Amino acid sequence: MNVSTTEWETRVNLAACYRLMPLFGMSDLVYNHITARIPGTDDEILINPYGYMYEEITASSLIKINVNGDVLDNPHTDGTGVNQAGYVIHSAIHSARHDVGCVIHTHSRAGMAVSAMECGLLPITQTAMRFKDITYHDYESVAIDMDEQKRLVADLGKQDAMILRSHGLLVASASVEEAFNAMYWLEMACRAQVDAMAGGTKLVIPPQAVVDKTHHLYQPSVRRPFGIMEWPAMLRYLDRRDASYRN
């Protein structure tokens, strides 16, 4: 495949992210999307071919589009293209947030459960406190309406995570590595909340000062950008199982 070294590296990391999601229970058949901005560009992003399961994604199978929806490179000659709903959500964020290098959207069981709770994500675990300032977007039906883009962007604001009410989860991070880490821990926070609430006992909510301190310690500029250090281990985890994502 005739692409730059930086684009190929992004393709490999994005394909790895796709492969990791089902291994940790965060995929939804052929649905959902993970997009990555090609370094050095403002408007070029990579997205999965619609109809492929995450475990099938490889670096060379990803489709390159711009934020206007134009297909710049599609290796598939069988009519395989891009899901409109994925384009609407992801292109809106990539267009508005040039600090975002990767967007992940999921329909996980726990994520959908918390998205349907009026209380939203509660700061009942250290993991959930990382997302103290998570935002919310009200459900407007299947995301194929271009007019919804402005509301998605407004609701996300400058945050790196959002719960789509009655829908699922979304993270927007500087890199693929950081995005996977954020989504993994957001998913774990949702699973823990569902489990705790299912127990039927009163929940413990730490003092606000503790919640604020914990949230602060998870900020990228405080200790480290979470996901970068962990990524080589995630690639080794994949390589021990199936390294074909690199193709």
From TrEMBL:
GO terms for cellular component: cytoskeleton. This is Aldolase. One of its GO terms (molecular function) is actin filament binding. PANTHER family: ADDUCIN (PTHR10672), PROTEIN HU-LI TAI SHAO (PTHR10672:SF3). Belongs to the aldolase class II family. Signal peptide: none annotated. It comes from the Bacteria. InterPro entries: Aldolase-II_Adducin_sf, Aldolase_II/adducin_N, Aldolase_II/adducin_N_sf. Pfam families: Aldolase_II (PF00596). NCBIfam families: PRK07044.1 (NF005451). Residues 12-194 form the Class II aldolase/adducin N-terminal domain.
